[in-house]
Design brief:
six-stranded parallel β-sheet, 2 domains, single chain, Rossmann fold, binds glycine, 356 residues, Dehydroquinate synthase-like, alpha domain
Length: 356
């Protein structure tokens, strides 16, 4: 559970029966009108799994373009407009069915329409199940920057079902798994070992479901203690300072990578930096890097691109007082926030990612 500025409680439901759990969650949330937000993919593949519930009989379905490039002010305006034209009031309910783009944008649309109405998240990708849909971060991209405009405001319920994961392609599964690996690293040794043992080549979906539940618990625990990222929530940024820079470089080079892949390579970077700056055990670095290289391959870049990567890190919105801020580890679960590194150390870190 998390309680945020709006004093709203978020229940996270690990669903064994999607329709029943969605129906009950919607019924628990009194509303006058009901809106469902989907994207052009989830409206075809995911919404039909629940659309015939009696609770959705009068639902008005809003569909926006899929992928992150549609996480824009224009899409947001189209959602606000559809809600206004559909007679939404402060007592209406919005159900978001989709990946992180839909849950972030839908959460923001609900949080701002008539100063805020309740919303439920039904995340349909692994990445959104273990990260985006939980913890109340909502928003849109703006001015070329990711998640630049948004608010903290929890969904009433988040319903996690492995039914959606079975049809997810391998790359998107790996993308979400990188965030799970991050949760293991910031949590405890047993969880980290269990995640490294998991066979990503031949997925056991029941086991994956159990690992997702554990992973989300890690995030909930942290968010409950620090909902607005004043301190401990920065633990969730492990791998993301380098990861976001790699993701931005890949985009600039015209060969975009999935967020979780960039996070996985960012973990390689930041665990190396953890060894240098916080004495993180070298054998744990080696085992984690082995797992990441075996499953995610390598990020192709050269040393002429180091300055550009450094520039991206300097513009990271998590920085404070002009310093590049890293979250590092002194050991598994031993979180060290607000750690700075010199340009030389950062370049060594990039050497390690490139050459091992
Ligand atoms: N995705 C990191 C966080 O929710 O804080």
């Amino acid at each position: 559970m998390c309680i945020f500025a709006r004093q709203m409680k978020q229940e996270v439901i690990i669903s064994q029966n999607l329709k029943k759990d969605v129906g009950e969650a919607v019924s628990r949330c009194p509303h006058d009108r009901l809106f469902v937000l989907t994207d052009t993919t989830t409206v075809r593949l995911c919404w039909p799994l629940i659309s015939d519930l009696p609770q959705f009989e009068t639902a008005q379905v809003i569909t926006i373009g899929d992928t992150d490039e549609h996480k824009t002010l224009e899409s947001l305006v189209s959602v606000w407009k559809a809600m206004q034209e559909g007679g939404a009031s402060r007592h209406s309910l919005l159900v978001n069915v989709g990946g992180g783009m839909v849950t972030d944008l839908g959460g923001f649309a609900a949080s701002t329409f008539k100063r805020g109405l309740a919303y439920i998240n039904i995340p349909t990708t692994l990445l959104s199940q273990v990260d985006a849909s939980v913890g109340g971060k909502t928003g849109i991209n703006f001015g070329g920057l990711k998640n630049e405009i948004g608010v903290f405001n929890c969904a009433r319920s988040v319903i996690l079902s492995s039914e959606f994961l079975r049809s997810l392609d391998h790359k998107n599964l790996l993308s979400g798994y990188a965030e799970m690996l991050k949760h293991g690293l910031i949590s405890d040794e047993e969880s980290w070992k269990e995640l490294l043992r998991f066979d990503l080549e031949s997925i056991d979906y029941n086991l994956l479901g159990a690992l997702v539940a554990k992973s989300v618990e890690v995030k909930e625990r942290i968010v409950e203690e620090d909902p607005t990222e004043k301190g401990l929530r920065k633990a969730l940024n492990l791998g993301h300072t380098a990861g976001h820079a790699l993701e931005s470089l890949a985009l600039e080079l015209g060969r975009p990578v999935l967020h979780g892949y960039a996070v996985a390579w960012g973990l390689v970077c930041e665990l190396f930096l953890s060894v240098v700056k916080c004495s993180f055990p070298k054998d744990k670095l080696r085992l984690t890097v082995q797992f990441i290289r075996a499953n995610y391959g390598d990020f192709a870049f050269n040393c002429k691109q180091y300055d550009r990567l450094y520039e991206f890190m300097k513009h990271d919105k998590k920085n404070e007082a002009g310093n590049i801020n890293f979250t590092l580890l002194a050991d598994i679960g031993d979180i060290q926030i607000n750690k700075q590194a010199s340009k030389e150390e950062i370049f060594e870190m990039l050497d390690f990612l490139r050459e091992g």
